Amino acid sequence: MATRIRPSSKRCAVIGGSGFLGRHLVEKLLGKGYTVSVFDIRQSYELPGVTFHQGDLCDKQALLTALQGVSLVFHCASPAPASDDKALFQRVNIQGTQTVLQECHKIYYNKDRLNSIKEMLLVLTSSASVVFEGTDIKDGREDLPYAKKPIDYYTETKIEQEKLVLKACDKENGLLTVAIRPHGIFGPRDPQLVPILVDTARRGKMKFIIGDGSNLVDFTFVDNVVHGHILAAESLRPESPICGKAYHITNDEPVRFWDFMSDILVGLGYAAPRYHLPYTLVYGLSLLLWLLSLLLRPLVAFKPTFTPMRVALAGTHHFYSCSRAKQDMGYKPVVGLKDGIRRTVESYPHLRHGA
Ligand SMILES: NC(=O)C1=CN([C@@H]2O[C@H](COP(=O)(O)OP(=O)(O)OC[C@H]3O[C@@H](n4cnc5c(N)ncnc54)[C@H](OP(=O)(O)O)[C@@H]3O)[C@@H](O)[C@H]2O)C=CC1
Ligand SMILES: CC(C)CCC[C@@H](C)[C@H]1CC[C@H]2C3=C(CC[C@]12C)[C@@]1(C)CCC(=O)C[C@@H]1CC3
């Protein structure tokens, strides 16, 4: 039987703590004096003050062991959006999140209440994309309706996940929840944005700007996302206005999508895209390619670079207001966009042109 550990307000669990955001979050928590239990399907590093529990989110017993003695849980595990695997997204983001909620209840209602936990706190990493349907969003607030026609399975299951977590907030029964909605996270060790961009450039496909290039977008440096998560955790009390609510966390500096991409590319020694292509043409082609990849899946596996989601993100406005986070939890970005881009570019010497 697992040994019981007494909870402390400086002990917490990070589900998905081996991933990009998760690891940055763990490092910041350690710096703030927390000890951390990481639960992830893989272990990607070792650090003093961190206990690793390797397992699948849907495995109740493994999860329960990782959550022992913890009254604060950050849930930032998800399959990568690029996997486009419907069954995997449903299993991890929906079933897995249900398991997290059940296990949080279980810890709280531990028969002998040895844990004497006042409340169980759950901070979910959701996504601002839960309201994105492929059309312009300018200064979007949290009261925008969820996307009725989500563009991909990732978004579809992130919506269900956020609904589940916010609905489970129950002050009487000691479970307090909040959802953080970051947008376009970037920074050192990001496995998506910079590597995909560089790979596309190396294959000679980053010559074109989709649309007129004037669309404004939020890109959020990872430290700001971490800051938002910790502020939310430390503000989560039964009397706090944040219980059961969602919060946009961004750099609060919308930038032209193609200027941001060019800054990263040029910083790494690649040419910036120059030629324009009409948005509707590229979006139509991306839909055709996606359908083709579905039809051919049993015969050949090919993954188009320009998916409908990526094209929509590259050719529309999507930036969000974080005034609710400013008001309810005193959020303010801690790293500016320019500084964030510089730190990101410097962290990828192996992806520089010619390296
Ligand atoms: N990156 C971005 O721009 C944005 C991300 N988000 C959200 O932030 C969160 C973190 O994203 P990010 O750090 O970029 O992603 P990562 O893929 O880097 O991190 C997610 C981690 O969860 C792990 N994981 C996946 N499936 C399971 C499972 N079944 N059980 C346990 N662990 C699992 C992953 O392992 P493995 O790598 O082996 O799959 C990985 O270590 C996600 O919830 C994502 O939806 C929201 C907005 C924007
Ligand atoms: C090939 C090019 C048109 C684009 C290359 C860069 C893209 C890989 C990234 C630009 C915006 C990013 C983004 C996400 C993933 C990587 C990008 C598409 C997310 C979909 C990650 C998960 C989320 O919750 C929302 C993000 C929006 C922005």
From TrEMBL:
Q: What is its main location?
A: endoplasmic reticulum
Q: What class of enzyme is it?
A: oxidoreductase
Cellular component, GO annotation? endoplasmic reticulum membrane; lipid droplet
Q: Which Pfam families match?
A: 3Beta_HSD
Q: Which SUPFAM superfamilies match?
A: NAD(P)-binding Rossmann-fold domains
* Gene Ontology terms describing biological process: cholesterol biosynthetic process
Bilayer topology term: Single-pass membrane protein
Q: How does it assemble?
A: Homodimer.
Record-given protein name: Sterol-4-alpha-carboxylate 3-dehydrogenase, decarboxylating
- Organism, per UniProt? Oncorhynchus kisutch (Coho salmon)
